[in-house]
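Example 3.2
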Amino acid sequence: MPLQVSDYSWQQTRTAVFISVPLRGVSVRDADVFCTENYLKVFLYAPIDDESSKAKIGNDTIVFTLHKKEAAMWETLSLSGVDKEMMQRIREKSILQAQKSAKEAMEAKASARREDQKYTLNVMMKIEEEERKRIEDMKENERIKATKELETWKEHQRKAEEHKIVQREEKLYQQEKQIEEERKKLKHKGLTRNSVSRNLATKGRNSEIIFFEKLKEDSIPAPRSVGNIKINFTPRVFPTALRESQVAAEEEWLHKQAEARRAMNTDIAELCDLKEEEKNPEWLKDKGNKLFATENYLAAINAYNLAIRLNNKIPLLYLNRAACHLKLKNLHKAIEDSSKALELLTPPVADNANARMKAHIRRGTAFCQLELYVEGLQDYEAALKIDPSNKIVQNDAEKIRNIIQGTELKS
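Structure, written as tokens:
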């Protein structure tokens, strides 16, 4: 309840008024001070700045420090000659003014809080944008790095393949050159034997009588001498003697063998110790499939490698080897084998649709594991064009789209 205080003291300067009011028997935490520019439970002589004014409570005394709005000396602390009705109006006006000031302060505080929240939100969005850009830049750098590594690896593989082709052509050239030399030797040897035979026949007719007389004289043979006779044979590709062979047939046979070696690569060293069925690319493909089923991926790759060296036109060999490389995380090799399989699976028909879809999925998986998501999505979409109703491929393609759009981070 309000206290009627009549015992107080006050002092003033030109800019402030100091009022000391005793509060005997009143607890500090229960005291309530209400002040406006004209009203401090008393009607002041002149307006004060109620916002900068303050009250200090302690030692059973409350001290008010009131700052005047206009610097001047007051004649009295409170107005004099104020009737009760006027006092009521001033009190009500002061209360309404205090309520308005409190409302304005509350609205200002709420506005400041909203501005702080807006500023905080903007700062958080900016930080998140910078973090997202940093992640995108990092992913782009990784993609560029992986692309450069892939191009470098492809260039290395291309040079290695060109070197192998040059070596193979050089070897075939040497073989053909050797065959040509053998053919010339055989032809020259045949001509020499025919010339010797004709010379011997002519000479035999002219000296028949001389030999006959000589045989008469030498009718008693002399004793045989002991010694070694050295016989030189003409080197030949075939084991048969020259008199039993036909040069034209031999030349045709050697030409066919060279063509066969060029097509089947039967001159590789690994075939020397293999059985006949092990030289069949289809048999090697089935063997690789069985090894893949037992998760022996390296052995399966070796089987596919030898089958490809025997016949490099079977697309399933590259497709199955790509699956092995994918299991072993040889991602660049998996991409290369899948691309080679797609190159051989032409033209696109219904019979090779399943193989083409597998090639696109395996290449797309390898691209995604290299974080090349755009290239991977292209392969998955190509697989969906072949089989649009495949739910698994649809779900995987959707996950890749989410990663590209930034709605899902790779774990």
